Amino acid sequence: MAGPSRRNAAITLMQINTANRNVAMHMRLAKSACSECPIRHRAVCAECDSDELAVLEQIKSYLTVPKGGSIAVAGERLDYLSSVVSGCASISKTLVDGRRQMVGLLLPSDFIGRPGRSTLSFDVDAVSEVTLCRFERRAFEGIVKSSPNVARRLLTMTLDELDIARDWQVLLGRLTARERVAHFLLSLVRRDSGEVDDGLFVGSANLTLPLSRELIADYLGLTIETTSRQFTALRRDGLIEIPGSRQVFVPDLARLSLETMDDDGGPIA
Amino acid sequence: MAGPSRRNAAITLMQINTANRNVAMHMRLAKSACSECPIRHRAVCAECDSDELAVLEQIKSYLTVPKGGSIAVAGERLDYLSSVVSGCASISKTLVDGRRQMVGLLLPSDFIGRPGRSTLSFDVDAVSEVTLCRFERRAFEGIVKSSPNVARRLLTMTLDELDIARDWQVLLGRLTARERVAHFLLSLVRRDSGEVDDGLFVGSANLTLPLSRELIADYLGLTIETTSRQFTALRRDGLIEIPGSRQVFVPDLARLSLETMDDDGGPIA
DNA sequence: GGCCCGCCTTGACCTGGATCAATCGGGTCC
DNA sequence: GGACCCGATTGATCCAGGTCAAGGCGGGCC
User: Pairing with A26, which of A143, A235, B204, B216 sits 20 to 30 Å away (CA)?
Assistant: First the structure.
């Protein structure tokens, strides 16, 4: 690398400010029943019994954040903890000179916030329109105390996130640009396909990318240009097809997974 | 970067095998009372009342792993969870071609293992001689269920580790070699000094590095050579003195912290 | 239709850090 | 004391990915 990117600091900051202003545009939605909730069995409430669920139901509220809007700002007070019900959000840090690194990608059922602390150390932004199921922090902390099923689920989810963050560290520290892009595409495949049978990449897959090239670059610790060139290179080598800039077809997942040096789901097992 | 390092794959693997053999050299130590334990108020047991502590005391055992020894191997069964009582251990992943990335550095009071799962996805190795306070997994999982103070403490510690991992992602994804080394030194200062008053780097500090240049390189996602050159460059610029290869004196912490682009504890706040 | 505006792609060139290869100490063993 | 070893340093060179700078392309708007 020829020094991490410092370009577009002004543009970057402008985008962030725009995002902050969008906070005012949040819309309130009517509650819907937990029993109907699409993330009922994967979110922080997954292991709740009906009593516990009733308590959560009482304190929850919904919030929709528009695409590009800010969900939380590093260092600022955050009085709600929430689950992503739909949409996609990013966790990232922007350095003072504009360099940015994404450190988390939040999809439906992922949890935002840190019980026991009122600030986060990272920015959380809506990549697409995001609907949140929110809990006022104090109330939620009480529930964590009284409901072991919520506490246990939260611990499991946090441990999973820690594993993801550490795999991501390996990607950022040691993989080449091509390996990073291949790994990114396969991680999307894994998430799409129920994220259970990881390690088995067989057949083909059609992907809709949730991120722009710029955000993919932020995710992978690369520049937009390098990211774009790697997509082109993978296409030229017949590993992927790109019918649209947000569409990727992988004709042979096993062959693509070889590009990550992995023999069972990534060099990053 | 000119492509992540792929050198020394054979040597690396040999070292790992040597480490594995060391498992057989583990020594058993007599128990000592929890009330006398140096990590009593920082480890997973920190919030236990005397009843809970008594239960833990009953199932705990000590284990000393020699320097270079293996504490856990990625993917292999691990039937004990443990706290580091003394010494220093690393969490890392080695790719099939020998590239290695450290993703965690364990110091006294840090916890090893994942309740609810019998394997880890990373290797854990003793950087120096390490003494562990171990709990058989099944028994410990029972305690987590019955003792909310242990469960809560475990959640807090895991959330802290997640923040550390994400800051580390920013370092690996976006900082220059010089910034990485400066950041590494300052993170050691912070850990040494009670790790409370972070953000305030004033005065000078004398450091004993817990890691060799090779392991520092694994930590920072660099090669040994680049790491060594950055130490030399910081010395040449008067930011540090190097009385011995494991000794670093920082005459002006504030000045060194400017090298990380940070104005209150790192660009990585 | 034609213009504009955001993305995305592509090309030419540069450079930070990797690679390859000595060399330098300090420690240990005979 | 000398030979050896192993980690650390330093030098010379290379190259992956960053930087700078044009285009290309699809979608919305008049």
Answer: A143
Higher confidence at residue B261 or residue B123?
B123
Helix (H) or strand (E) holding B218: helix B213-220
The model's pTM: 0.90
Q: Averaged in consecutive runs of 10 residues, what is the pLDDT profile of chain A (269 residues)?
A: 48 39 48 89 94 93 95 96 97 96 97 95 97 96 92 96 98 98 96 67 93 98 98 98 96 94 46
Same domain? For A226 and A200 the reply is yes
Domains in chain B, number? 2
CATH (domain of B219): 1.10.10.10
Which chain A residues have a beta carbon less than 8 Å from that of B158? 155, 158-159, 162
B6 C-beta less than 7 Å away from strand C: yes
A 201-230 residues, CB < 7 A, strand D: 221-223, 225-226
For residue A193, give its domain range: 175-258
Whether residues A101 and B161 touch (CB distance < 8 A) is answered with no
- What pLDDT does B25 receive? 46
